[in-house]
Amino acid sequence: MIEALNQINDLSGGQSSGLPVRYTGRERGVVLTMHGSWHRGWWHGSEKAPRNESEQGIVDRGSFGVIDMTSHPLQCRCGTLKGVVHEPRSANHAVCWCRDCQAFAHFLGRAGEVLDERGGTEVIQVLPRNVVFTQGVEALACMRLTPKGLVRWYAGCCKTPVGNTLATPKLSFIGLIHTCLEGAPEVKSLDEVFGPVRCWVNSDGAKGEPKPKVAGMGRTLGWFFGTVVRARFNGDYRKTPFFNMATGQPVVTPRILSESEHVELKRAVLGTA
Ligand SMILES: [Zn+2]
Ligand SMILES: [Zn+2]
What percent of the chain has pLDDT over 70? Predict the structure, then answer.
């Protein structure tokens, strides 16, 4: 287990700042942040992602019988890029207030649609295996705010954000951004399909005072081990539309922002542009 944690730490793109990784159950140990990096904190080992029938995508609706909720449409604003997300109930539904996520929304010129009033981005974390593009995949584009930042995916046709991954396919998760899941006509509420938001992170980046409370990290860690680490060991991480597994590189070369472009976006986030 410790070996696995160390491996994850190595894979986290240099964001771990060399913090020791320890598995200490209910004692003081490490906590996974939304972006795959680690920091010290309390982790309650008993908090595990729920695994029951409704979480697996089958919901009993009483007199309506059993409704199959095993996929949800994904679509960019203009309809060029289309796909589906399978096993929606296996997702971790979260809100990230970090300034980098806000900068990405500004980069796309979509801050008004993507960000909530405190600057939060609603993300649905799923295994890339569960994302299948059915149309317009050539429109898929990606960028990085810095050479070591997350790979941030979007539809190049209309600048609809798609989601964020690490720069390696080995820790396979994508934080899908809500806007690409709300584009198809007659979609159900994301809470209904993916379950309610259960994790709120990076409140330092939230606009206004007092800062909102961070919560749900224990659940996210449980989700991470039950889903992402499991996929690493059972080989499911190899099934991804975002990486070429032969090279380990993203299927599209990310555009890396120049320092001045990044500074400009940071100003936009802080409202000083
Ligand atoms: Zn589009
Ligand atoms: Zn973020």
Answer: 74
Tokens (6 digits) for 242: 């975002």
Q: How far is the CA of 240 from the centre of ligand 1 (A)?
A: 21
State how far the Cα of 154 lies from the Cα of 214, in Å rounded to an integer.
Answer: 27
Q: Which residue has the tokens 């320890």?
A: 22
Listed residues: CB within 5 A of ion ligand 1: 76, 78, 80, 155, 157-158
Tokens of 85: 């997300």
Name the 3-class secondary structure at 77: coil
Cα 103 to ligand 2 centre (Å): 9
Domain 70-270 has CATH 3.40.50.300: no
For residue 100, the CA-to-ligand 2 centroid distance in Å is 6
Domain segments of the chain: what residues?
Answer: 70-270
Question: Which pTM was predicted?
Answer: 0.77
